[in-house]
Amino acid sequence: MISEEHRIAITGNQAIAHAVRMARIHVVAAYPITPQTSVVEEIAEFCAAGKMDAKFIQTESEHSSMSACIGASMTGARAFTATSSQGLALMHEMLHWAVGARTPVILGEVNRALAAPWTILTDQSDSMAQRDTGWMQFYCANNQEVFDSTLLAFKVAEQVLLPAMVVLDAFVLSHSTEAVILPPQDLVDEYLPPRETPVKLDPDEPHAFGGMMFPDVFMEQRYKIEQSMDIAKEVILSEIEEWEKATGRQLKPLYPYRIDDAEVVVMCLGTAFGSVRYAVDKLRKEGIKAGGIRMWQYRPFPIKQLKELIPEGSQVGVIDRAVSFGISGPVGSEVKSVLSPESRNSVYGFIAGLGGREIQPESVESVFRAMLEGSADPVGINWVDVRK
Fold first, then answer.
1. DSSP H stretches of helix in 248-318
2. Is 283:277 a contact under the CB 8 Å cutoff?
3. pLDDT for 15-54, tens place per residue?
4. Cβ(22)–Cβ(182) under 8 Å?
5. Looking at the domain covering 254-383, what would its CATH class be?
6. What superfamily does domain 4-247 belong to in CATH?
7. Are residues 55 and 20 in contact, defined by beta-carbon separation less than 8 angstroms?
8. Are domains 4-247 and 254-383 of this chain identical in fold?
């Protein structure tokens, strides 16, 4: 357990930077984009002040940033970058490459809506557009969780050889100041020891990397990536336990709220969960058995925990801050696929909070009431607070 003397007031972006510093990173490659820029500005200041012994590379684009991190990781270095929105979209090609090359790069991803039209405010369309690349994704709800998740992401990624995104809402967390407890450096060093890389780019021990792979082995390579993603589920649980032993703080794949006897449940990712809890408490006072769930671990998808947590026969509404046009929200669609017919759950997809629009407690309450009143569409898209 750590003492209160390590408590400081920092933004979510600063929390990422401090975690990267304490992870004893070797290479940071980055290109500025609002609202991520202050992450790498903080890291650059750490490097300039001698607080980090890392190579800081200012690249000409986000595509190059990820390329540099992949190259560094292939030499056995611990590598990090950060981005948002259009920058993440520009990285898209190299996100696939990072997975196929089995490089445990960590990415600080500050959620910002994708253009056009232009906006700098938050929704999850940027990271959700990358959900099938093979990156692990962790969605945070406060700045302490941002710090803790970043260190855990390094630990897990380096064991399963898959990259990971630590995702936080633009401005709601990225530029808002909260109290964050930083553990002593020796505690972090014990939790996250130096990276070991048995096969790496080394002029003294040549290997071939990333060459042409023919159909007789390509599919097996993809199969092994999926196997590693499956293994990651157990590794995450193990590292959550180790982190709790070290710090007294626990991360969870899913965070339930008043769920045990719930007959109607609302799920979400990120900071909107505060409004979910408020709405649950209000409805409970009316005698309605409402409950909420926040998803922290989105990739790998926590299938087992979700099935165990959702009360059988309950109605479930999933609020997405992104939309898969023509079907529903991405998280809602996946929850529907996981909760099989034998669970007797009715699952509804709701879209809210796009382009930085606030998800107020009243918005969440309207989701609960739409399910209770039978006005929610169980197949199509249910839009919240939209002017039609």
1. 273-285, 303-309
2. no
3. 999 999 999 999 999 999 999 999 999 999 999 999 999 9
4. yes
5. alpha beta
6. Thiamin diphosphate (ThDP)-binding fold, Pyr/PP domains (3.40.50.970)
7. no
8. yes
Residue 340: which pLDDT band, with cuts at 50, 70 and 90? confident
Q: Which residues of 249-275 are buried (b: 16+ CB within 10 A; e: fewer)?
A: bebebbbbbbbeebebbbbbbbbbbbb
Please give the structure tokens belonging to residue 70: 């992949």
What whole-number distance in Å separates Cα of residue 327 and Cα of residue 171? Answer: 29
**Residue 5 DSSP one-character state:** G
Quote the CA–CA distance of 55 and 62 in Å, as a whole number: 17
Name the token pair of 171: 């401005």
Any idea of the CA torsion for 302, 354, 113, 119, to the nearest 10 degrees? -160
pLDDT at 198 over 90: no
List beta partners, residue 28. 56, 80
Single-letter code of the amino acid located at 358:
E
- Give the span between the Cα atoms of 77 and 267, in whole angstroms: 38
Q: How far is it, in rounded angstroms, from Cα 40 to Cα 52?
A: 13
Break the chain into its structural domains and give their ranges. 4-247, 254-383
3-state secondary structure string across 175-218: CCEEEEECCCHHHHHHHCCCCCCCCCCCCCCCCCCCCCCCHHHH
Please report how many Cα atoms fall inside a 13 Å half-sphere around the Cα of residue 262, on the Cβ side. Answer: 26
Which residues lie across from 83 on neighbouring strands?
Answer: 109
Digit-coded pLDDT (tens) for 102-111: 999 999 999 9
| Token couple for 81 | 């970058």
Under 8 Å between Cβ of 132 and 92: no
Amino acid at 99: V
